[in-house]
Write a structure and sequence with these properties.
Layout (H helix, E strand, L loop, with lengths): L8 H28 L8 H35 L12 H93 L16 H12 L1
Helix pairs in contact: 1-2, 2-3, 3-4
């Protein structure tokens, strides 16, 4: 759309929207910083981040609705021409119909472009909010991730140590049983089979506990 007296209505509305979004984001950052300085809220920094982010989201959504209405009104006023200022068409009724059809087509194209621009602006604002939310939660996530890795390594090492102790106990019991069987056969007739040491139920329970814990 051409400028009207040196003013582009779309650019003016876009500048107002961007300025408002910047102002709201700066206000949110200042509000977070002020609340975190309060001694009585020293343990609630995460709640402060989440609460201010939700407030920013609601304010920006309300602003999007208001600016959409303002933009539509500005465009409508820009295209409106008072009846007294309309010049008579030299081509008659046919020429007037063609001009109206062309104007309607241009208006539809303009509305589509405005809608696309509005959607893009909303996506940019949503990405900005996601970025702010991630930055606020990033320290907690990194701390939890580091603790999980350390706890996992210690748990695996502890299970391996318990399993080694259980298997060592089973091996010692088996060796002792074999020695007892060998000593008992010294004074009697030679046997054609060796003593078989079976694992007791308590040994199996210890092994199962070590593997599953």
């Amino acid at each position: 759309m051409s400028t009207i007296e040196g003013l582009d209505p779309r650019a003016a509305v876009a500048d107002m929207t961007n300025a408002f979004n910047d102002y709201v984001c700066d206000t949110g950052d200042a509000l977070k910083a002020a609340l975190k300085k309060l001694p009585e809220l020293a343990e609630n920094h995460q709640d402060i981040e989440q609460g201010v982010d939700r407030w920013l989201l609601k304010v920006q959504r309300a602003a999007d609705v208001s600016f959409d209405r303002f933009e539509a009104s500005a465009l409508e006023q820009s295209f409106h021409v008072p009846d007294g200022l309309m010049a008579a068409s030299s081509g008659g009724a046919a020429g007037a119909d063609e001009e109206e059809a062309e104007a309607a087509q241009l208006w539809e194209q303009l509305q589509q472009r405005v809608a696309a621009k509005r959607e893009l602006r909303r996506k940019i604002a949503a990405l900005r909010r996601l970025e702010l939310a991630w930055e606020s939660q990033r320290p907690s996530f990194e701390q939890l991730s580091g603790l999980s890795r350390a706890e996992g390594v210690h748990a695996v090492m502890d299970k391996a140590a318990r399993l080694k102790r259980v298997l060592g106990g089973l091996g010692g019991a088996r060796d002792g049983g074999a020695l007892m069987a060998k000593g008992g056969c010294g004074g009697g007739a030679p046997r054609h089979h060796e003593a078989i040491r079976t694992v007791s139920l308590s040994d199996l329970r210890q092994l199962s506990t070590a593997l599953c814990s």
